[in-house]
Specification:
CATH architecture of the largest domain: 3-Layer(aba) Sandwich
CATH class of the largest domain: Alpha Beta
Radius of gyration: 32 Å
Shape: elongated
Low-confidence stretches: none
Structural class: mainly alpha
CATH superfamily of the largest domain: HUPs
Number of helices: 19
Distance between the termini: 74 Å
Strand order of the largest sheet: 1-2-3
Helix content: 40-55%
Length: about 475
């Protein structure tokens, strides 16, 4: 295989959003092309005019762009190639590889019913296969379809790059329609023509397309075209072992973005969902390109595991630049109904606190929620545990530590820590008896990064304001 010979494609149908299985298919095509120094193309299969819409096209392209899986060229829209699809259909007709069929819908329905009654698989019975019918043949005003001539005997074997040799008996195949009565090409036909015309060398797609491959092979062979290498990827199941459905809430890629997953993490997770290299779980983009090949794809279905995805996502959050994370957090805080005044000072607080925040977050949403206290203004909303902690004893401790902190001339983290530890020792208190009420008063929670770091970032004025507010409100019983 020469380095520049590989051409792959991802060909979504714009009848729905980009879902998790489609994203993995796109990723595998992208990685395989990059690994071999080839090209990765994107084709929008929009010949189904009734079900396709531009909103879904935009949604798919947006999702692919977010994942970094745009095609190497501008997307190809299948409907723009319809004249070429028709041309090939008539070429097959001319070469006696296809024929006109004038069966009415009622005749086809009766054909299926008879087959079921006789215990046969319902399929077209090739009524018009050997008739000399032309486009002008009269039959009650019925416009004909064009059907491909499938082989009548023997068997067809596809050497699948994942599954190995797969064979079907040709009697299981029927003379499928390639051109409808309104002269529009079918999906099966258009796909073959498009893949051939752009030189697709490897068709990497879900195993639910395996049956289609044998039907599409008929067109390749009838045209004398070389078949590409096929690789059918096992499906993705949910945690219960059921096939992931487009109707499920967390299937759409944009849902994962909204849930706070990073594209790098999702790509890493999807890469490992069906493909493996030893026991490595975290694989960088460049290393994945270096390692990826079809031989690493397993034959068994994969199960989607949110715990693993969160673990990988937390790794990438820790590796992400703090400025970038700060921008993500601010975007989420400003999008919520929080009435937060996200000033430059607030941005600086969150940025300075990011090292402490990001080690505790599994998603960007969780990171944003954890950072919210930096942007909040008193009175802070206390969670249940923080509210319970601030009893009269804790409030007396807070009053004492507030007085001590107010006397500090230097409000740096090390100085704050030394002062609080000394206060606890002098008052015969455990450090937690001071730190936890402080944490509750200034963050609204009992879980947060280092309290000394937080106080230094908030600054002396804001720290004392929050302590005073917490004391006054809780003393009043609010």
């Amino acid at each position: 295989m020469s380095c520049m010979s590989v051409i792959t494609r991802f060909a979504p149908s714009p009848t729905g959003s980009l879902h998790i299985g489609g994203a993995r298919t796109a990723l595998f095509n992208f990685m395989f092309a990059r690994h071999h120094g080839g090209r990765y193309l994107l084709r929008i299969e929009d010949t189904d005019k009734e079900r396709s819409n531009m909103r879904m096209v935009d949604d798919i392209l947006d999702g692919l762009a977010w994942l970094g899986l745009e095609g190497d060229d501008e997307p190809i829209f299948q409907h723009k190639k319809i004249e070429r699809h028709i041309e090939v259909a008539y070429q097959l007709l001319k070469n006696d590889k296809a024929y006109y069929c004038y069966c009415s819908p009622n005749e086809l329905q009766l054909m299926r019913e008879n087959a079921r009654a006789e215990g046969r698989q319902p399929r077209y019975d090739a009524t018009w296969r050997n008739r000399k019918a032309s486009l002008n043949s009269p039959k009650g005003g019925i416009n004909p379809v064009i059907r491909i001539k499938a082989p009548l005997s023997g068997e067809t074997t596809i050497i699948d790059a994942v599954r190995g040799p797969v064979t079907v008996m040709n009697k299981q195949l029927d003379d499928m329609i390639i051109l409808r009565a309104d002269c529009t090409p079918t999906y099966m036909h258009s796909v073959v023509v498009d893949d051939h015309d752009v030189g697709i060398t490897h068709v990497i797609r879900g195993e639910d397309h395996l049956n289609n491959t044998f039907r599409q092979a008929i067109i390749y062979q009838a045209m004398g075209w070389e078949l590409p290498t096929f690789a059918h990827i096992p499906l993705i199941y949910d945690s219960n072992g059921s096939k992931l459905s487009k109707r499920q809430g967390a299937v759409n890629i944009n849902v994962y973005r909204e849930m706070g997953y990073l594209p790098e993490a999702l790509n890493n997770y999807l890469l490992r969902l069906g493909w493996s290299y030893g026991k490595e779980e975290i694989i960088s983009h460049d290393r994945a390109i270096k390692l990826f090949d079809l031989s690493g794809i397993g034959r068994s279905a994969s199960r989607f595991d949110f715990a693993k995805l969160e673990n990988i996502n937390s790794h990438y959050i820790r590796k992400t630049d703090n400025n970038k994370l700060t921008d993500m957090v601010l975007a989420r805080l400003s999008a919520g109904a929080n009435n937060l005044d996200l000033t430059d000072e607030i941005r600086l607080r969150i940025y300075l606190g990011m090292d402490g925040l990001k080690t505790r977050a599994r998603t960007i949403n969780e990171l944003s929620n954890n950072a919210r206290f930096y942007a909040a203004s008193p009175p802070l909303s206390l969670d249940e545990k923080a509210s319970q902690l601030l009893d009269n004893c804790a409030l007396n401790i807070l009053s004492g530590i507030a007085q001590t902190l107010s006397e500090l001339s230097s409000f740096h983290e090390s100085n704050i820590k030394h002062t609080i530890c000394l206060f606890a020792k002098e008052n015969r208190l455990k450090l937690g008896q001071v730190a936890q009420p402080l944490r509750a008063a200034v963050t609204g929670s009992i879980n947060s990064p280092s309290i000394f770091e937080i106080l230094a970032i908030l600054g002396k004025k804001e720290t004392l304001r929050r302590i005073d507010n917490a004391c006054s409100i809780n003393k009043k019983g609010y």
